[in-house]
């Protein structure tokens, strides 16, 4: 749709969620009424992305593939790639090189959930305006734990990006959603592994910063972001989705609904999909949405 391809990085060993992650990968854990991976997939669909690569571990990839399929029911295409050994977020671009084939891209972490009023307009606007790399910021109470963004409030141009600073200049943390131009793979190849043995996403972003081509789009008061990679955050994410859906009567993180809204599928196609499934609150909602 917009020339950008999407990557969901759903790898890693999920050690922070052990022992549950010893049975099934965290991206298939439920966040209230949907598997975790539905939320980043919905984000990409709302951004107008129609070609998606899911990267996961050898153990987990077939399970994810059995749930999402080839993406046709969402009006998109989904491909899959194995991450044999986790070696940093930026490693995703080396794994995805053939899939990207020189295209610009959007990377989202498989355990990140975003919520914002008019999110589709906000996200698609960021993609359309991207001229190098765009990162997203969210205000946090403990900035020493994150990569912290200092940016020009007028232009969004990033002035500094520091990983876990002792004396942070702002409270705006870089979160797990990134937009890159077609040079991202070559830039990733130039990176050296950190002391952790990983290709750091902050190092990649700083290459764009050095070129003066890194911008930030910040979420604001009332927006919601969470990294659901630990039990406390997973519980908070479940509660957020439950409360929001209960009080509004609207779903959060439904790729079928997002696909309908962006025009990937029709109401008739949605109805045909849902009528083949047994009744549940989720299915009944989508049947009603399809006009049945």
TrEMBL record:
Superkingdom of the source species: Bacteria
Gene3D superfamilies in the cross-refs: Spore Coat Polysaccharide Biosynthesis Protein SpsA, Chain A
Keywords for the protein's UniProt record, in alphabetical order: Magnesium, Metal-binding, Nucleotidyltransferase, Transferase
Record-listed E.C. numbers: 2.7.7.24
Domain Nucleotidyl transferase: 5-241
Catalysed conversion reaction: dTTP + alpha-D-glucose 1-phosphate + H(+) = dTDP-alpha-D-glucose + diphosphate
The keyword Transferase belongs to this UniProt entry's keyword annotation: yes
Pfam families registered for this protein in UniProt: NTP_transferase
One Gene Ontology term of the molecular function aspect: glucose-1-phosphate thymidylyltransferase activity
Cofactor: Mg(2+)
Sequence similarity: Belongs to the glucose-1-phosphate thymidylyltransferase family.
Name of the protein in question: glucose-1-phosphate thymidylyltransferase
Taxonomic lineage of the native organism: Bacteria, Pseudomonadati, Pseudomonadota, Alphaproteobacteria, Rhodospirillales
